[in-house]
Amino acid sequence: MLDERKLAVLRAIVEDYVSTTEPVGSKSLVDRHGLDVSPATIRNDMAVLEEQGFITQPHTSAGRIPTDKGYRLFVDRLSAVKPMSAAERRAIETFLAGAYSLDEVVARTVRLLAQLTRQVAVVQYPSLSRSSVRHIELVSLTPQRVLLVLITDTGRVEQAAVDLPDTAEPESIAHLRAVLNACLDGHKLADAAATVSGLADRIPVPERPNAGAVFSVLLESLAERHEERLVFAGTANLAAPDFGKGLRDVLEALEEQVVLMRLLGEAASPSALTVRIGAETGIQGTSVVSAAYGAGGQAVAKLGVLGPTRMDYPGTMGAVRAVARYVGQILGES
Amino acid sequence: MLDERKLAVLRAIVEDYVSTTEPVGSKSLVDRHGLDVSPATIRNDMAVLEEQGFITQPHTSAGRIPTDKGYRLFVDRLSAVKPMSAAERRAIETFLAGAYSLDEVVARTVRLLAQLTRQVAVVQYPSLSRSSVRHIELVSLTPQRVLLVLITDTGRVEQAAVDLPDTAEPESIAHLRAVLNACLDGHKLADAAATVSGLADRIPVPERPNAGAVFSVLLESLAERHEERLVFAGTANLAAPDFGKGLRDVLEALEEQVVLMRLLGEAASPSALTVRIGAETGIQGTSVVSAAYGAGGQAVAKLGVLGPTRMDYPGTMGAVRAVARYVGQILGES
DNA sequence: ATTGGCACTCAGGGATAGTGAGTGCCAAGG
DNA sequence: CCTTGGCACTCACTATCCCTGAGTGCCAAT
Known about the structure:
Two copies of one chain form a homodimer. Chain A contains twelve helices and ten strands. Chain A is an alpha+beta fold. In chain A, the strands form three sheets. In chain A, strands 7-3-10-9-8 form a five-stranded antiparallel sheet, sandwiched between helices. A three-stranded antiparallel sheet of chain A has the order 4-5-6. Chain A is elongated. The first copy, chain A, binds a DNA duplex through residues 23, 25-28, 37-41, 43-44, 46-47, 57-63.
């Protein structure tokens, strides 16, 4: 139905349109790509491609531009992920290597990705549920208030204040801390939740109210709420006239954690790329390229790039894949 | 030199221009405000105001718009901070009250401020140097790597990984932790830096290399680097055509911590408002309204709003002041 | 199936003219 | 001396028209 040449034409249209931002016509197509046929032939091909919904013309008598469906086909079958150059790989490596805390790693990653792709980058913090407890700390703030600090093996630190129903002696807090660490250290957070629920027995009766308060806050930390922390960078790249009036939608999506989470998609195996195009993202004219990243073959979170539907997919995909790999590597080391 | 009426004219021009976005002429001025003089009189006044540099015309034969200098005068002498309505105050209070961790307080504050002002809000994390050490925790990650966690009385938690030169026994780490907490607990962070430097003596000689590594990372945490953490929200409000092409500059400034810090200005006494207009901010067409906030009369950080020079100053100032106060209150409680 | 030829379409870019809000200035009046 | 009505003038903005050229669709010939 679509022979070799028609596919080549579609590929050429996507490439030209992406680089020039202008509808591409039959004449310039044969010129710029070494097609050994006449413009008229191309026109016939384009008519077919248009009929099938892969390209369209903004108005009669203008060149063609790809539709979402056209980009889809291009990404799925007509293009290859463009690998990073050696120099770029080195740059990524050295830039990420300088980061110590997890915050720093994430911050650098997101900036790096924005810079490489010249688009908006989004990075999700390593998810809690797939990592394990390294240490739990309780610190008295006031006699009736303690700070709960949870440290995971991905280096993530969660904190929450707990209001106690009764005043607490330092020893009882120390005891509670010991119990928590003894039972949870090294456990996956997902299991930890279950363990905590059955822990009340190990606490002397008079201290149970306080322990209960701590447990419930701890459970809350382990659960949904913090799962969704996202960071983004590169919004300045939106100022390019790419989006025009859709800009508001994009900016709004960026501030809505929920929407953004959905855009990054469900977790997949590490460095497998997901591409959402145009309508698939729910934001007109916007595409998202994302990948899971993780330490040691285990996906812990996602990261991605958000840009105009008309973007350089091979290049963007290459950058996202490369960054996802290196971040996984860095996290695996620590 | 500028009599009552001329000032009234300037005020009216600012108000009208802010609300309509269009140059305001002599006729509409007398209509919309109850001025008991003829348009011709107003024209004379406007000529004077223009001569003095408070207003200009975008082109001959258009109405006048305020200059930066005009806004300045308006803010300094012609307007009063608009207090929040009772309903708004209640909304602020309940919205902020739901936050537990410091992260949460900051996140809510910035979103709240963006929503109230319909502009871009920026909040600086409570500064480290003005708060004091609540607790220091050391957690082994590997035999040659520990995680340093610093907890302050504002609820802020800093973390950093430390690579040790030698492998460390659990006891030596425990000892180090005890020493650190004994010496630093309750001290202002600013003093803490000095204390740490003189601490090497208290450590047995064989453990000094490791201790040194920890100290140096700790000093780094106490110093500049983390001082500057900033969060912003409400970028979607930039999509209003307010900025036009200056938008790129604004977005870039938002991603440059250093620039943003400068915009918020030096710390002042809590809830004193600072207003920077147009060129004063270094970003064409942009103004910044900021205030310090803090617990118990002590300023700990700043927050503010960034918007087009043509903004509703009284309203924005009211919102910033109110939010700064409530945040200080919330922080003071914990 | 491919190609050259040809008539047709239509966005975009000046050029021109009309409109009206707004100005500056002046001379008269309080 | 300040205020005011009158008046000529300016100039952004809009509408209209026209033209140009890139690009198309179709057809008949190869």
